[in-house]
Design goal:
mainly alpha, 11 helices
Length: about 270
């Protein structure tokens, strides 16, 4: 008789990457925000438009030029990147927290997905949401103000980096949070200050020396500054240095998310 070889039930049978499982998770994370697009896409676009309108009416006519460009054009890239990072963070953090609160996180943990595949799946959803928001705002700026990106490729790179960095940060926040008020505290006391105090509405050159130095320790500053260079061709810091710092920060946060998911921190009983 031919002996049937014993196979370990926990053994992976998909090779190095479970492409079907990874695609399914990516698709689920994208559908999470496209299904309720009025809340996840339209609302942020309206908010970004209101920011731009209010600052233009209240400050624009009297502010003068900033870094050689009109104030309205100066703040537009900052608002774009601020909207991108807020939405990327919200997508991954809310996905994990809602699953934990509803008790269906097991549906994500049980399939044969490696930790890096879970990270990539969540990352895809956050980056995709940030990209859609960025494209919509860029088109709206082109149609309403005629403002076009001076360096489209640079803008694209920093938008992707911004979405990836904040998606990874959202994973960490979602892993730590077991209820919605914990998630709200992180959003209000960490994410929002990072976005608002990173040169979104001002040039870092106008800050006092201490604040100027502290700003350069904030990775979000380089994301916003890089997006401004991509849109306007001018920036506070070198885009190359900003790219290296943003890439390093993104890699570090992704590695931390992978390590925590791998151990099941605050995911498994």
């Amino acid at each position: 008789m031919t002996q049937i070889p014993h196979r370990n039930p926990a053994e992976r049978r998909f090779g190095a990457v479970n492409w079907i499982g990874l695609y399914t998770l990516c698709r689920r994370e994208v559908l999470r925000f496209t299904t309720v697009w009025t809340q996840t896409l339209l609302a942020p676009l309206v908010t970004a438009g209101l920011f731009l309108l209010i600052f233009t009416i209240a400050i624009g006519p009297t502010r003068g030029e900033v870094m050689g460009v009109p104030f309205t054009q100066f703040i537009a890239p900052g608002i774009l990147m601020m909207t991108v990072i807020q939405n990327a963070f919200a997508n991954t953090s809310s996905s994990i927290v809602i699953s934990k609160v509803q008790g269906n996180i097991v549906d994500t943990l049980m399939p044969p997905l490696a930790p890096f595949e879970l990270v990539l799946g969540y990352l895809a959803g956050g980056v995709a949401r940030g990209m859609v928001v960025a494209v919509c705002i860029t088109l709206a700026l082109a149609l309403t103000t005629g403002q076009m990106p001076q360096h489209p490729l640079v803008l694209l790179v920093f938008v992707i980096l911004g979405g990836a960095f904040m998606s990874a940060l959202g994973m960490l926040a979602g892993l730590w949070s077991n209820k919605f008020d914990q998630m709200a505290a992180i959003t209000n006391f960490i994410v929002t200050p990072l976005a608002f105090l990173s040169g979104t509405f001002y040039s870092a050159q106008a800050l006092p020396p201490l604040m100027y130095s502290l700003t350069h320790f904030n990775p979000v500053f380089y994301l916003i500054d890089g997006a401004r260079y991509g849109m306007l061709g001018t920036s506070d810091a070198s885009p190359a240095i900003g790219f290296v710092i943003a890439l390093g920060a993104t890699a570090a946060v992704l590695l931390a998310a992978w390590a925590l998911i791998r151990t099941g921190w605050r995911l498994k009983a």
